[in-house]
Amino acid sequence: MCGIIGYIGKKNSLPIIIEGLKRLEYRGYDSAGVCVINGDKIIRQYKRAGKVNDMEKNINVDVFNGNIGIGHTRWATHGEPTDINAHPHFDMDNKIVIVHNGIIENYKVIKDKLAEDGYVFRTDTDTEILADLINYHYRRTKDFSLAVRLALIDVEGTYGIACLCADEPDKIIVARNGSPLLIGVGNEETYIASDAAAVINHTKNVVYLEDGEMAVITEKGFHLKTIEDKEIFRNVEVLDFFMGEIEKGGYEHFMLKEICEQADSIQNTYRGRINFETGIVKLGGLESVFDKMLNAKRFIITACGTAWHAALVGEYLIEQFCRIPVEVEYASEFRYRTPIIHKDDVVILISQSGETADTLAALREAKKHGATTIGIVNVIGSTIAREVEAGTYIHAGPEIGVASTKAFTSQVMSLSLITLMLAYEKSIMKQSTLVNVAKSLKLLPEKINKIVERKNEYKEIALKFKDARNFLYLGRGVNFPIALEGALKLKEISYIHAEGYPAAEMKHGPIALIDENMPVVFIAPKDKAYDKIISNIEEVRARKGKIITIANEDDTNINNYSDYVLRVPNETSLFAPILNVIPLQFLSYYIAVARNCDVDQPRNLAKSVTVE
Ligand code: G6P
Fold this sequence. Notes:
Oligomer: single chain
Strand order of the largest sheet: 3-2-4-1-10-9-11-14
Strand content: 15-25%
Helix content: 25-40%
Shape: globular
Bound molecules: 6-O-phosphono-alpha-D-glucopyranose
């Protein structure tokens, strides 16, 4: 979603801001802009709909030469993605300028009040209203920091903001409520950003703002306080990831890189958490709630998008192996349907970013009811990770492609580890079984690499379907969520309509869609559902649908039923879904590339959805 970057120091800020905006592109955006001050108390602004590259090509670098600046990538919420609605936004006097992530919920009320005071507005955005509200207080106080603070007291909603004032050109003011913001501390220079990826190549020393906090940023550092004016002291943290992790490293797209590196990301998820001799799993982050997990009457797993599909896999695993009832909820629905949550429920929140607004709201709802809350999160220090009672990081590393791939397999791995830990403690799984599972786990990265080595085979098949208008993905049991995830990947990046369904449920509707133009992907590994899946394939064949199967390497029988086969190594353990999804990721990737789609930044999508 929207991204913020800012710089104050001795260097020319424009190249730093443009580079930072490029590093934020992956979050999804539709317009971009920058404001710079260069000592003459005039704020220069350039903004436009479209890509950061277009902005870079057209901006007059001589005019935008100054050592304080802020930049923004916008994902439209209020107002179309036009030049005028792009950030930064000026106040009415062109003295104060602001970039904003989030939504000002009471902007209409504020707008009406300001209009009564003679304010006129240039854009359709809620952000311009905040700029004018700051102006309102600035006219009275002549104190920039105080004016921002007073304005924020009146504001309801979510925000991460950065603002400049022409009269006080030695500072940037930032604040946060529900939208991430961090300060990057350098040597005689300070950065601000909504995402560490934007500053990591300048400094690893960062301070995260918490909700309800603001900071005055100068080249010497920062002064942190609450919106209520209480001083705050916070230690600087050192970021623990490297530039290489957020660069393409020779791959054409981040998505391709992230698909191909899953042997590593999966290992990072389980490393140090399983004893390969005994098979016993220990997740340190869950120790404090372990008894509550064992005694829980019910688990509720809630998430959005791809993470919700991981949750569904978790439901199959935990119910089958731990015999604990599991409910899976869309986080966006959970809060609004007055859910029944008991104190002895365990609510698991899955989120790559740890910032998804709906998942965060679901977490707060669960806490309100006294349930135990557990996070399965990728981004370290993110809001969900900080607010849950306990949790386990998936350690997949930064995921830049908007379509989630390696985070999904690592989320499923985390859920598999939780399953093993509980199944053993509940004496449902014997230690001898665990030892065998551990053996399978040891072989898993090699099997993932075998899949990656087959990518050209998958590509060949993908090219045959680049002009398809619809796709159906079918699976049974734990492979039903894998079908959903395969369909989601295709929609997200190739804009082909795709639906995932439980294979047997096809007869109750989707079968009507099948003709010779309908490709149907069956997830058909040799498991206990295999014979049933073959029957479902027959039903589609009888109606001339095109059959693509995900099948095991040694399954020659499947050739009799398939037009095309995407092979995966045999896997009988609970890790099989992790293998089955990877060819589907490749399939959607190669179809999207063949259709000239912007794979890493698909239209309208955002990496992290921080609005409800
Ligand atoms: C967005 C992203 C998806 C992601 C979903 C949930 O829609 O485009 O890839 O699965 O949000 O995000 P989270 O960060 O909570 O996993």
